[in-house]
Amino acid sequence: MMSNAVSIIQELEAIALSPYKSVMRTMKETGKEAIGCFPIYAPEELIYAAGMLPVGMWGGDTELKLADRYLQTFCCSIMRSNIEYSMKGAYDMLKAVIIPTFCDTLKCICENWKVSAPRIPVIPMVYPQNRRIDAGFVYMTEELERVRGALEEISEKPITDAMLEDAFAVYEAYRSAMREFVSVAAEHPEMINARSRHLIIKAAYFSDKKAYTDKINKLTEALKKESVKPFPGIKVVATGLIAEPPALLDIFAKNNVAIAADDLAQESRQFRTLSRSDGNVIQRLAWRIVDQQGCTFLYEVEKTRGQMLIEQVRKTGSKGVVVFMMKFCDPEEFDYPIYKEELERAGIPVLYLETEQQMDSFAQIETRVQSFAEMLA
Amino acid sequence: MYLGIDIGSTSTKAALIDGKANLVAQKVVNIGTGTNGLELVLAELLHEAGLTMEDVVYTVATGYGRLLCDIADKQITEISCHAKGVSYLVNGTGTIIDIGGQDSKVIRLDPLGRVANFAMNEKCAAGTGRFLEVMGRVLGCKLDELSDLAGASTREIQISSVCTVFAESEVISQLSMGTRREDVAKGALVSIAKRVAGLCKRVGVEPKVVMTGGVALNKNMVEAMSRELKEDVQAAPYTQAVGAIGAALFAMEAAEKKENNNG
To answer: Which of A148, A142, A338 is nearest to A239 (CA)?
Structure first.
């Protein structure tokens, strides 16, 4: 059974480490055309319902040589990488891209995209600032319908309500599988270290969700059959936009620091919120955004993130919180002082790591991670 | 005998501790990682102590070059080692400010002398010893002369840029306008102190505040730091070797633990 788990882990890691190759293979295997999805939340169900493949676009470790033509150096490296990739032709397989406007940089990216990748149409998407009032909700359903129409035009076929129901069911199964996986993985840090955990979750962005969910379910079942062993290191909760590059996570594995739970935008924020069962699929998609809590990209008066992190720490027996702060990510930086204070008040140590996708020197970060582990040991 | 080695970016330090935690010897050579600094410092250290490597039971390496130190039994970060070393040397320390060659760290200790929190500068030379090196070069003086130069200042000028490269241009502009070298030197020290004070605020300052690292040899720097924090700040004894002393203490503990486990 263990070898079965290991082979699934290796397969998913390989998918995440070679996005281009993985997407091309998935397109070939499924016969689907691909639609790119910029961070943070894209209505992937609409794409899936249209018989197309949603592909995550969360940047990558590419040398930035061309992107500076359109983006300033103070834009986050995910956006700069995405524009760089588009100019290098890495996204040429995409039929279109959906760009939601969650931050100041994303608001401008739609225009940048038109010149950096003029052959790939862009579907902009604006989420309401006041998502929890009736007008915001109605606006969001109308925006989702508009995107549905745009995808119908691209796919040249209607997206029926029945197709939406089927796609929503696929994504519900995926989200449920992911919630179970992260919970079970937290008990097996000896098998699912920080790097593996990230790559396994990331592989979903380049796979067909149905096939991916089957693999995750098999992996979870295999993990469940393993006995829970004492872990000689420490467990932490990760927060932030994204925990990359993978070499950064190698440092965690090397120092026996396991990620027991996360609040990362690229990871658990995508699947942690339970869906409502009432209303049609468009309304359920909108409810998912309404009900999402503790995400800096979705305006929230109450600021629940700090308390949520405290609960995650306590629930998982973690000893601290690691902040993966993407350099120049304003929304994440705005939240930091608020939850840092709450965590410190609760006596929970915080490790702050400033990251970029193009990192070539890890010595200082290694000192921080090792010191944190020594401090908590 | 227990050996601690601290391989920094600009200097290598070593210390020996005996079985009763007495400091036997400590040495500093002013070349760091990637050089023969380790060989040199060990030769000087063992010569002074009248010992050989055969007498060393356990070795802990720390500092930027710790991971490449193959004679070490264990590697521990400089944050933990500075905490250990300062707790040993200065009773009741609450906060450590370590300004090294290429980074600066603030470490807050709990009442038992353990690390309670820490912060490091980001990938930038501002607020580090490197900043002072650059300033020293522009002012035409050695690093150890910078303190005396600043001590002769009669007027504090402000260096507003936090970036070392831009600050260098700013200082050249000041000098070309006829500003005295002494005043510029003082401005450079205050600039670092302000930067590091910001770092201190991230972890909170608890007295007693102790400075370590080569920059703490600069007494005007320690005073500038004290003024910025509005706290009494003192330089640690053996300020450059504190990390190595802490590493040696960890070596003693690790060896005792190993012996107990074997016994």
So the answer is: A338
